[in-house]
């Protein structure tokens, strides 16, 4: 893909939550292979923004294009998007294994001319191989037969990443992917994410509260408080002046010690 063609383009995005203006006139674009973080205080509209970008909630105004197409006309290209929500809410008693959950992320069209039973066998074989490979690459293969309701927070994050990995993706959207994971777990997950991003050529858009990790690992930062306060490389966007303008007085930046 041409490196100058945006994977995601957003222009004038405005979103209301009821009568509350959650996101106002936001515009930005993501180039292939970049890792962009959205930072800002609680209630700034970060999660609302990424949900609107993925067309999961309605927008009041604005244009969204993914892979050069309006989001509403993305069609089968939607499988090129991966999404990890902040809270993966499910019934922990539901009897589904890790491998079954990851397999739900696999979708492939049959080749024309395939006989019915040949197609079924081929698809099942390819799916099983893809699930196994995704779990191995996320260090979650040993969990394949485990019920998802028994997973720890960190284990579940890796399994959800395997779900995104089981099919080829172009854009990976993470909404507070490290919520509920301790500092070391977050660092390990970031290392894994960076490795997979390089190997897969993912473009990443992530919401994060961890300014230190964003500064270390992301290419670009959007500082958001309903509208974009500033944007740029981490060393520019995360300057004390810009953080003060985004978060307001009293913001304290925590530095990891490892």
Automatic annotation (TrEMBL):
<dbReference type="InterPro" id="IPR003593">
    <property type="entry name" value="AAA+_ATPase"/>
</dbReference>
<dbReference type="Pfam" id="PF00005">
    <property type="entry name" value="ABC_tran"/>
</dbReference>
<dbReference type="InterPro" id="IPR027417">
    <property type="entry name" value="P-loop_NTPase"/>
</dbReference>
<feature type="domain" description="ABC transporter">
    <location>
        <begin position="8"/>
        <end position="251"/>
    </location>
</feature>
<dbReference type="InterPro" id="IPR003439">
    <property type="entry name" value="ABC_transporter-like_ATP-bd"/>
</dbReference>
<keyword id="KW-0813">Transport</keyword>
<protein>
    <submittedName>
        <fullName>Metal ABC transporter ATP-binding protein</fullName>
    </submittedName>
</protein>
<dbReference type="GO" id="GO:0005524">
    <property type="term" value="F:ATP binding"/>
</dbReference>
<keyword id="KW-0547">Nucleotide-binding</keyword>
<dbReference type="InterPro" id="IPR050153">
    <property type="entry name" value="Metal_Ion_Import_ABC"/>
</dbReference>
<comment type="similarity">
    <text>Belongs to the ABC transporter superfamily.</text>
</comment>
<keyword id="KW-0067">ATP-binding</keyword>
């Amino acid at each position: 893909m041409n490196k100058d063609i945006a994977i995601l383009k957003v222009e004038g995005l405005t979103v209301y939550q009821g009568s509350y203006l959650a996101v106002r006139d936001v515009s930005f674009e993501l180039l292939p292979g970049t890792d962009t973080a959205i930072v800002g205080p609680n209630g700034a509209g970060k999660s609302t923004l990424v949900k609107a970008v993925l067309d999961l909630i309605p927008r009041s105004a604005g244009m969204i294009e993914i892979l050069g197409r309006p989001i509403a006309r993305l069609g089968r290209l939607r499988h090129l998007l991966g999404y990890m929500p902040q809270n993966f809410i499910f019934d922990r008693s539901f009897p589904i294994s890790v491998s079954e959950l990851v397999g739900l992320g696999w979708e492939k069209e049959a080749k024309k001319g395939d006989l019915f039973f040949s197609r079924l066998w081929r698809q099942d074989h390819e799916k099983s191989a893809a699930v196994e490979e995704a779990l191995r690459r996320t260090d979650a293969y040993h969990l394949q037969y485990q019920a998802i309701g028994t997973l720890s927070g960190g284990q579940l994050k890796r399994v959800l990443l395997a779900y995104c990995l089981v099919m080829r993706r172009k854009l990976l959207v993470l909404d507070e992917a490290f919520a509920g994971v301790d500092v070391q777990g977050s660092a390990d997950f970031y290392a894994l994410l960076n490795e997979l991003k390089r190997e897969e050529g993912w473009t990443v858009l992530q919401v994060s509260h961890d300014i230190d990790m964003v500064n270390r690992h992301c290419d670009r930062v959007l500082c958001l408080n309903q509208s974009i306060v500033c944007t740029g490389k981490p060393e520019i966007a995360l300057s004390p002046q810009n953080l003060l303008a985004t978060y307001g007085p009293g913001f304290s930046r925590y530095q990891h010690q490892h």
